[in-house]
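Reply to dn_fold:

You asked what the input looked like. This is it:
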Amino acid sequence: MKLAPSILAADLADLGRAVALCEEGGADLVHVDVMDGHFVPNLTFGAPMVAALARRTELPLDVHLMVSNPDRLLDDYLEAGAAWVSVHYEAAVHLDRLLARIREGGARAGVVLNPATPVQVLDAILTELDFVLLMSVNPGFGGQSFLPYVLDKARRLRGEIDRRGLAVELEIDGGVGLGNIAQVVRSGIEVCVAGSAVFGAADPAGRMRELVAAASS
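and this is what came back:
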């Protein structure tokens, strides 16, 4: 299991410290939630912030574009240093073209599905993906409660990936914590995003290690 702490839940005035905590806690990725105030009702990180984070850490930046126009903004985030980039199926008009551009830019290409979007929409494009990010909350805000029915989506998608022999990783984002991470991993998830569960703890680095241990159990 790979752990990707979401810095959206960290102290936004000290993100350099946040990525240092991710390194200390043994995180595999740093999850960066990019919101445009249009596709989702919040506004967060621009490309200059991603570039600044890339200068402060060796960890890969997992950039989740929650934006209405990913085709226009994509290149800025690739140039800023994103290592993983995911775009929403619900926002991408020309999804195949976007995935090709992500890979041409040197990043791993992923698609995000909102909780109510069925996994079957990926049938034709699954072979072009490096990962799929399943939202287990409705995107736009941190600290929401986990939606258990998304685990059924994870199991169905994991079954299809395995049946077709594809090297596609499954990631989940929203409401993941100590109480459910083992169940999440059992459903076929390989990358867990955790925000409030990590940065809401008194010892974020220690909490990261606890989450990995709980998943391994």
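The radius of gyration is 16 Å.
Hope that clears it up.
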